[in-house]
Specification:
By secondary structure, the chain is mainly β. It has two domains: about 80 residues, no CATH class; about 170 residues, no CATH class. Helix content is about 0%, strand content about 50%. The protein contains no helices and 22 strands. Strands 9, 14, 16, 17, 18, 19, 20 and 21 form an eight-stranded mixed beta sheet that branches. The protein is elongated. The protein starts with 6 loop residues before the first strand and ends with a strand.
Amino acid sequence: MSTRWWGPFSFEMGQTRLWRMGPFEMWLQRQEREFRLSTMASPHRDTPDLVSGATTTLEAPADAEVIRFGVDSSVDQLEIQPVTSDRAAVFKSDDPYLVPPGGEVTAFLSSPVWLRLQLMNPVRVLHELATYRPSDTWFGPSTLEGELCYAVRTSVRYNLQNLATRPSRAITVVRIANPAPTVLPLARLRLPLPNLSLFAGEDGGLWTEFVTLERRHDGDLAEIRLARTAPPEAGRCTLVGKPREDIGRHSLIRSFTSLLGISGDRIGHV
């Protein structure tokens, strides 16, 4: 059993591997001139992540969803790569949380990762799928201005010890600074996950870059800065997934209401 579920995996003809990640299960089987991908979810199961060894006796359930990928008979490896989600995510705080003027807070967020299945030498992406697909939500000041995001069920935590960690989820450390002369209420936090990389700690845990959101003194704008590496809390890390959309290391200036759910925002499920 291992929590490091990504990387290249070798298959002999007829062999099957199983990935179990909480409610998500995935079987990969090598057959003549094809890989067979079977997936299913059991919403009420919450087990630790598991990567099985290859076996010729393991079979996917008959009711699993199946996709078949045609490959050359010489292909005996498939790589699984963790990547961040394809949309920004919205995190909601359990209770009203206020950052005083001149204050700052560090938030710890956890989000599900996506799996990218690809062939090697040369790299060719076959498929992507989420270990858990959150519900859709609209985030913006109106129905005409904003964007479609994911509503992540994990609440915003301000103490790392209070955040449950799972190998198929990535932790993001966010520093929120409020140098403005007025209180900053944090209701909902939008995190630009497609712009973030994934790093693996020595224990197999996944992390993104350290993110800083700093409110401008006029209170209307925020500067977003992405660090070049994982946060110190992650310890020694290795880069395992590049951003879907690389914005470089330059800071971004965005309307603060498009990042944090303060007065005037509307949010609802689609």
